[in-house]
Amino acid sequence: MRRSATAPKWIALTTGLVSAAALAVPAPAAAEPVRPQGGERAADAPWVIAHRGASAYRPEHTMAAYRLALRQGADVIEPDLVPTSDGHLVARHENELSGTTDVAERPEFADRRTTKVIDGKEVTGWFSEDFTLKELRTLRAVERIPDIRPRNTRYDGKYKVPTWEEVVSFWKKADRHPKYAGVKLIPELKHGAYFDSIGLDTERILADSLAGHGLDGEDSPVIVQSFEPGSAREVDSLVGNPVVQLISPSQPELTTPEGLDGVAGYADAIGPDMRLVLPIGEDGLPGEPTPLVGDAHDRDLLVTPYTLRSENAFLPEGYRKGDDPAAYGDHLSYYTEVLETGVDGVFSDSPDHLREARDRYLEDQG
Questions:
Q1: Angle at which helices 202-212 and 164-175 pack, to 10 degrees?
Q2: Over the stretch 111-133, which tens digit does the pLDDT of each residue have?
Q3: In whole angstroms, what is the distance from residue 46 CA to residue 35 CA?
Q4: Strand, helix or coil at 124?
Q5: Would you tell me which CATH number, out of the four given (3.40.50.720, 3.40.50.1000, 3.40.50.10490, 3.20.20.190), belongs to the domain 9-95+161-365?
Q6: In angstroms, rounded to a whole number, what is the distance separating the alpha carbons of residues 201 and 41?
Q7: Residue 353: which of 332, 339, 334, 337 has the closest Cα?
């Protein structure tokens, strides 16, 4: 669809979107719209986007992780979507299942282990597209990075893999609650071209679901994202929902002025790797922000980079505390540096930490 010069209603997020009564961290009082470097932010407050749910505290992409993200003050919740063999979308970061489920321990599925080429990379394991929904629902989620998040392993085996339809039902129920009304969903479609090649059109499956739920259109609370421009364009043509073009470091052509001109023709936002916005120097501290935020804002594109994590293992060296990779570093300082670049939202595994940093930042701005 042709992008309007007027920003759609879905960006009209204010600091009061999630009620302060629902949170341990109070919302700032009557903050004025932020005037960030790199252009004016489209929303009054940068979004707290729960990356795979509150995945620092529960195994990722489980209903428990999504529920906790709400309680921690997330404005947007992200379910990644992959298909089953019978055409259902389920919430997993990857179609390879052994990293986040107990499939490798299930003898009845031992013969499903195989090697495939996904997006040019050889991958060995068990794949969602080789399971019916009924079979996949017998699996149980496990923590993906137990060495960094050992406390999450206590939940191993407790939760099923959610379907997209379950996530929508969860969202609808939450949206009727005064504490959580207005929270959005930002599903990511994974490996669209690969799934097309094996006859699973995930863009069409999602589009049909959105239309069936009345969640299609540019004012929808469901924002669709993909790393693949072809997939993002297809979703835009099918339902016209807000679209985010994710950008990895291997896609630098999308961050140039010419690349952003093209992205603005089908997308409403970009979701770049964090260091495409805020490079880290040899001293382990941020250097000067790149022009990406300002260039995107000049084209009416929001900027929602990924991913903030609070453990030393994931923080830039200058923000680490001690030698334990699983311990928290000075995450609030780093999160604040990211917010000061003028981004419109940020993905985080710890929505509570990002919410605290966001609220403190707005208080300082006010």
A1: 30
A2: 999 999 999 999 999 999 999 99
A3: 11
A4: strand
A5: 3.20.20.190
A6: 35
A7: 332
Q: What dihedral angle (degrees, nearest 10) is formed by the CA atoms of 97, 103, 107, 113?
A: 10
Beta strands (DSSP E) in 98-147 are 114-118, 121-125
Mean confidence (pLDDT) of the chain: 90
- C-alpha 100/C-alpha 162 separation (Å) is 12
The secondary structure of 342-362 as a DSSP string is: T-SEEEES-HHHHHHHHHHHH
Residue 108 is predicted with a pLDDT of: 98
Which residues, listed in sequence order, are joined to residue 226 by a DSSP beta bridge? 245
| Dist CA 316 CA 295 (whole Å) | 25
Length of the chain: 366
If pLDDT is split at 50, 70 and 90, which confidence band does 43 have?
Answer: low
Cα dihedral across residues 38, 42, 46, 51: positive or negative: negative
- What is the mean predicted confidence (pLDDT) over 153-175? 98
pTM of the model: 0.91
- Asked if 272 and 296 count as a contact pair (C-beta separation under 8 A), the reply is no
Q: Which of 29-33, 61-65, 84-88 has the lowest mean pLDDT?
A: 29-33
